[in-house]
Amino acid sequence: MTATPLLDAYAAATRASAGILAEIKRTKPKPEHLAHQLGITHNTATQLLRNATYFSAEQLTDMARAQLTMDTITTIGRFCRKLSNLDINPDEFFQQSVNHATTASLTELAEHLATIVAKHNSAKANRPRADWARFSHSTDCDGKAYLNIKAPAADLARIRSLIDDEAKQTFHQGHASSIAEAYAHIITKRIIAHSQPITDPEPNPHNFKYRPFVTICHPWQLTNHNGKYATTDGSIINPSEFANAMLEPLGWATVAYKTPNNQLEFTPPIEIRARQATDAQRLILSNAHPICAHPDCRIPARYCQIHHIKAYAAGGETDLPNLVPLCLRHNKENDDNPTKPKNGRIEKDPTTGRIGHRRKPTEPLRHNRAPIVQYGAFEQAMRYFDTNP
């Protein structure tokens, strides 16, 4: 028999997968850091973190003792999550799954667990399995994105029957390379043709996704006289000015105050506009930087917040040279104070003007190299001026 030392070493390493998850559970790395450390995709890193979080330390120890591979652990976790019959003890189901995994192939294990879970859930499902539709954030090498949908079988069968004849006709007429492509064309065209964008007539809606809402407490007793707030000595307090002075780094505020009869009341929402990018600025920035500026992120700019490269609280201006789209998580985790590094911070290259992320002060600036970045207005303009100095 031919010796395979590398394959043998790899097989041994895969049997230590539960120990790897235990270390991930203990250290709690961020997905982008884990992806960089292991040389894996962000999605794979997220799956590792999900498994490490889902299983208890005792369960990881049991799987380490059984020397289960990562794919086997992922399969067990997937079916443990699918089990919805609360009459079934989840710990016992887990242990039975581990025991079966030690004697079955991965394919046999998946088939066995699918049968068992379907049987348990059909007997008594304590929670309905939710429908969902998931859109991919990234595109493939053909410039295509993906939509996966889970819905009642009868509904999907009905959809298919409604478009089946049209899809076959489209295919036979040469307008699609396959029936599957014809399905995709028909579904997307019908949704787009019969849908209208939802618009908000307000110039600045109370959008909690992009704009935080906070409560601050006024130290004095106030009396509300038709929207004007007076102190006990007769002075008039302007809540908007007070909120702006106290909360310049934030988005929306309400001032909580005590009335003379010791009742707690709140002012109407006060908009802190000074630090927010305008709609025009957001439009330009989304065109210049089509996705989140973090190098490991692919979230489109339309779903991002507008980040101040130099923090607004540190004197950063709300001007285009100081703004860039960042997704909710990376904006929240950004080290606004460069003297206190923790997660890294967004910076601008002083030579090229390109925006990137610096993990530590001693590390180089990393730029988002997703293909779509090259189609953004910033990179297109850079290429133009490089060739037309």
TrEMBL record:
Q: Which InterPro entries did the record assign?
A: HNH, HNH_nuc
GO molecular function terms noted in the UniProt entry: endonuclease activity; nucleic acid binding; zinc ion binding
Return the Pfam families for the record.
Answer: HNH (PF01844)
Q: Where is the HNH nuclease domain?
A: 279-332
List UniProt keywords, sorted A-Z. Answer: Endonuclease, Hydrolase, Nuclease
> Which region ranges are annotated with the description Disordered?
331-369
**CDD domains, alphabetically?**
HNHc
GTP-binding as UniProt keyword: no
Query: What top-level branch of life does the organism fall under?
Result: Bacteria
Q: Where are the transmembrane segments?
A: none
Compositionally skewed regions (Basic and acidic residues) per UniProt: 331-351
* Record-given protein name: HNH endonuclease
